[in-house]
Amino acid sequence: MKKKFSITLMALLLVAALGGCAGGKSSEDKSSTASSNTQGTESSAATQGTETQETETQVEQDSKYGGKVVVGVQQDIDSLDPHKATAAGTKEILFNIFEGLLKVNENGSLICAVASDYSVSEDGLTYTFTLRDNVKFHNGNNVTAEDVKYSLERASGLLDGTALVSSLKMLKSVDIVDEHTVQVTTESANLELIYSFTTAIIPAGSGEAEGSNPIGTGPFAFVSYKPQEGLVLKKNPEYWQEGLPYLDEVDFKIVSGSDSALLELKGHSIDLYSYLTDSQAAELANDYQILSASSDVLQGMFLNNAVAPFDNVKVRQAVCYAMDRDLANEFVVGGNGTIMSAPMLPAMKDYYVELNDVYGTGANVEKAKQLLAEAGYPDGVSFTVRVPSNYEAHVQTAEVIAEQLKDANIDCKIELIDWNTWLEDVYKGRNYQATLCGITCDMTPSYLTVRFQSGHNKNFINFASAEYDAAYKKAEASLNLEEKAKFYKEAQEIFVREAGTAFIQVPPITIALNKDLAGYKFYPIYVQDMSTVYFTK
Predict the structure, then answer these.
(1) Cβ(91)–Cβ(77) below 8 Å
(2) Per residue in 195-254, pLDDT tens?
(3) What does pTM read for this prediction?
(4) CA 208-210-216 angle, 5° bins
(5) β-pair type (110-112, 102-104)
(6) I need a surface site. Which of 96, 144, 158, 248 has the fewest CB within 10 A?
(7) What whole-number distance in Å separates Cα of residue 421 and Cα of residue 424?
């Protein structure tokens, strides 16, 4: 059994390693890194092979440097402390300031960042990281093994008993082998733990100071932050990945809502804005580059299972039957979304199970009415859905679905709220009946499924199912990839059958980008990587 586990574990870890650390970013590979997924990039001088061509290429390369970009973002940040940040909109910004031992690249593969290499013991219990030479914090100090130890102990709860990154709670110890090597020992083997080492490395002892003066190792350094206004970052001239970043400054500007964002774009006061609706993209097509890709967001009508009427499974099922997700997809995102039903990204093909046929993708009004009658609501139900007003796609989707539900005698009243109210009152306070929003995912199958365990601190829908809990625990504990996938699929089937939430779709990311900019990369996680963005003129 041990041998079988070792082969399975190492096969998974090898995939991650081949995605990055074997070709870690350094001065030797900067030309390929800088040109990856960019528009209008040139061949390297080495490929051209002549002195004249090399000089011309260097001039073109140099012309990329400099300038300031203003990025419009839809919400204020919830914390500058990378270990405490919760909101996806915060993490998309902090990606530019902080890095872990490892980081995810645009292909979803793990690459080395603060670490230059790592290995895992045969039993899967010990991770050994070799630190990259001369990685500097934004305060000018070199990253040391002490910094890594402190960061992982703080995030995992080994420092004071409070785990700030829940997936690291299984760490047993973090030990310094020598000044360039850190060894991490875990309580048990877990095939997904390697992705948790993307957790930010911060200076030893910085702790709570990160909340007001964040110091990381990323391509951009913190300058200033004004609540409800935005965040200013400047170029890190000593970034370990030679040649990056190109920009001198990036301003993340908080816009109050979709209408404000549209006005700012039309006035060219922002250079980049994400999550356009189909109609907005069409309106801006002549003035901006409109780029799209699949997102890592699962949009849904999230139902509070602990309050009426959604404490009744048949009412939750009725909502799922009454929704026409095909129409919502077509109306809001031009049919470019991916209809889905389960708490797993469809892109995670080994773990995702297609369950759209459980309730169908169109409306089944008669079935919805039947279930409501069986639940004790023959005349229908009424509820309020709270929607963050700064996300136009969610607002539009809520409006479409509210109209659909009327046919099944379901009265859905829309209450628009600001982002901070949603975060504090809905997500943290669980003071709501329903909310239409999106949840982002990472590249691990447990990212979403873990939160729907009974009593989990992130289970904001209050879903409680002993059957689901048992399936998830089996998936979490399994050290066999096929068996793990089987139990994850079982958990999804239970969740959908019990209608924990009425999932809708994975909407596309559609962005407006200044026509003079190039080098923007889409990621399979929710980030705005500004390190490769540059002006073409």
Answers:
(1) no
(2) 999 999 999 999 999 999 999 999 999 999 999 999 999 999 999 999 999 999 999 999
(3) 0.77
(4) 145
(5) antiparallel
(6) 248
(7) 5
